[in-house]
């Protein structure tokens, strides 16, 4: 996958999140996964914090639509990808948004992604329409080109930062005596890293 981050064994917390790829999200995975619902993991280091991503991908197949709730249940983030040259794919994203909001509420971090910006001359979904819609449903809009590997790393890193901010805010509410937070209900894991002694004459392994 194109997303990445610097290594390092800094102290702090480790965050574990579940992210689901919907629509044409499978096209952002490099190299491509088999044409079936797939699961992969990715480890990132963001602002000194470790982030473990569990990414679920339905490979854009319609036969998985009915099983959608199985894959996006307990998700902390969702990446919904449409083809800027295909208006129908954008309408499908709107359907996914409705399902996700109905099942998971407003806590889930939504990313609406216009892919194939390398084919802008063939665009059928205007930037203004897409960005306006994303804002109206509380999502953020991104522009990518899987072919040129453009905008994908920024997408994943920004999503991680947003999920971290949401989890931190919910932890503060929990600390103030609030009822069980949405992050707890969705299974967010926030673990304090144990300090590790540096081996004599050695260096720390990357995280």
TrEMBL record:
Q: What keywords sit in the KW lines?
A: GTP-binding, Lipoprotein, Membrane, Nucleotide-binding, Prenylation, Protein transport, Transport
Q: InterPro entries from the xrefs? A: P-loop_NTPase, Rab21, Small_GTP-bd, Small_GTPase
Q: Which organism is it from?
A: Lates calcarifer
Q: Which GO terms describe its molecular function?
A: GTP binding; GTPase activity
Q: State the family named in the UniProt similarity comment for this chain.
A: Belongs to the small GTPase superfamily. Rab family.
Q: Per its UniProt record, what PANTHER family does this chain match?
A: PTHR47978
> What is the membrane topology here?
Lipid-anchor
Give the GO cellular component terms, alphabetically.
Answer: cleavage furrow; endoplasmic reticulum membrane
Q: What is this protein called?
A: Ras-related protein Rab-21
Which cell locations does it reside in?
Cleavage furrow; Endoplasmic reticulum membrane
Q: Where is this region: Disordered?
A: 171-207
Q: Coiled-coil stretches, from where to where?
A: none
- GO biological process entries: protein transport; Rab protein signal transduction
